[in-house]
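User: Assemble these into one structure.

Assistant: Restating your components, then the assembled model:
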Amino acid sequence: MKHIFNKGKDSTKPTLLLLHGTGGNELDLLPIAGRIDDEASVLSVRGNVLENGMLRFFRRLAEGVFDEEDLIFRTKELNEFLDESAAKYNFDRDNMIAIGYSNGANIAASLLFHYQNALKGAILHHPMVPRKGIVLPDLSGKSVFIAAGKNDPICSPMESTELQSLFEKANAKIEVHWENSGHQLTVDEVEAAAYWYRRVF
Amino acid sequence: MQKTTGIHHITAMVNDAQRSIDFYAGILGLRLVKKTINFDRPEVYHLYFGNETGQPGAVITFFPWSNQLKGRIGTGQVGVTSFIIPNQSIKFWANRLKKFRIRFIQSLRFGEKYLQFQDPDGLEIELVERNEGPKNNWSFGEVDSEVAIKGFGGAILISTQPNKTADVLENVLGLECLGQEASFLRFKSDGQFGNTIDIKLTPSVRGLKGAGTVHHIAWRAKDDQDLLRWRTLLQDKEYYPTEIRDRNYFNAVYFHEQGGILFEIATDPPGFSVDEAVAELGNKLMLPSWLEPKREELEEALPTVEVRVLEGDQS
């Protein structure tokens, strides 16, 4: 997978996995990684799927209608890529925090839904419930920050609340930050995520 | 105040293209007015069915995708799609449904008699007799234009927050509230069809998107300028609409109303004759210009489908 790896100053810090939104690329979230932890290593991945000329992490049919088969396949692909990258760049595979926006947040959530040890934690900006009706692995010891918009036209507040409760049932520690805005990634929610990160990690 | 004249189109998810064609064209007698592809998933059709010319307010569209999981009709969705049939034709339709072994019930809502049934994927459909709207000049099988579906009557919305959905209909879209009867709140717009929207007030299960459910309902905007005004209004009221998207046959913005239903506002022009003559509508697979170079490959990947007169329906 196309990606950027920037080695951080402090190798004891978590490695930040950056996952962009639909139509973005691996450069998008680099400034955000800096705001969360400017001493951590960063692995920023480019989505492998092209939709209408826009990069994504998995395929869909319409807004909110995911291709489950492709989602499962792409989630596995990404998880394996993380294993390979840890070996290649020599970072601690068990100390990885995903930062994802929209489609990137969805695949990050999907990593947590499908693999018990894919991530130590995640900062999810405007995620949806990636899959319905499956049993999540035990996520004890994992921490997830969700930033949601009360007026998000893509992802309804109900969806965010449902994701929160699914993670909680799987024993993950969850914090939800609500913005009054829509689907955009706001400075306020990034700052709230940074504050959360400093408290938790 | 800005007002929509009613429904522009309704888009639903199904599993099989030919099965949907047989149902909506073969049995209901609608015209396949456009055969194109899902721009985001070119190996999936996007089929549009309507009256003869595919007027706004008469068009139901489908994404037939066999991989799609079954959905569940419930809150956050359009629960029922209603079509108008001419006065005195309800008996014809009841007989026709019987002939094709489609189970239906008759029900009464706001003094109107409805025939309610499901399509092969489980979408809830109903027919209601009304005088409004021009006759549909399309005829197919035994469905001649004296009995042909004219367009949408309206829809039943199943909301997570019926009061909030009522508020959008009244104070954003400009529909008039006609009042409550039993467990429905009725709204009306000025259009000739697609103008009667009922909100279900009794509790429902939570909806799940998937095959056999409506993906979104679109409301009419007169033109691009009107659409821009709608978008500004939605922004002012903090509904956070998407940017304007080019859908080839109309331009559109999308937003979730607070009851969870995906709403779209779509322009009447340019319409379905933008790339095909009215007489030829739906005959050929239409592709956006940027996918035209891949036509052969796409035609190969898509299942072969046809509009066909069903057995026992020769006229």
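Chain A has a mean pLDDT of 95.
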